[in-house]
Amino acid sequence: MSLIPGVLANPAWNTSVGYPERLSHIDSIRAGSKGYMVVLTALDPKAQPRKIGHFNPDVFIPIGEVLTTPDGVCGVSACLPSTPFARLLTESASASKPASPW
Questions:
Q1: Per the count of CB atoms within 10 A, which of 11, 17, 25, 41 is most buried?
Q2: φ, ψ of residue 23 in degrees (nearest 5)
């Protein structure tokens, strides 16, 4: 079994309230939707449950291929270069505008 650099889901996390939503997002990525990881730092890494101490709004990491290990852990095989949030907004806005008929 090869190591997966970025773990997206682990069956051991199934008690998390957000776990079903996370699995739905993974299914969407596998179906071709774009997916991004964000960089968060825990307020106290040893606390259970953990709370977000810091969120870096300038770094969004595009997800490459999603892999699943035999024990059900989902992760990414590779992360693509990070994308500034402002650029994502610009790309999203231009993609949602209909083409001009002129």
A1: 25
A2: -65, -40
Q: Give residue limits of the domains in the chain.
A: 6-95
**pLDDT tens digits, one per residue of 51-90:** 999 988 888 888 878 888 888 777 776 666 666 666 766 7
Q: Provide the 3-class DSSP secondary structure of residue 15.
A: coil
The two three-digit tokens of residue 25, written as one number? 């997002």
How far apart are the C-alpha atoms of 88 and 86, rounded to whole Å?
5
Question: d(Cα 83, Cα 60) in Å, to the nearest integer?
Answer: 5
| CA nearest neighbour of 59 among 39, 40, 32 | 39
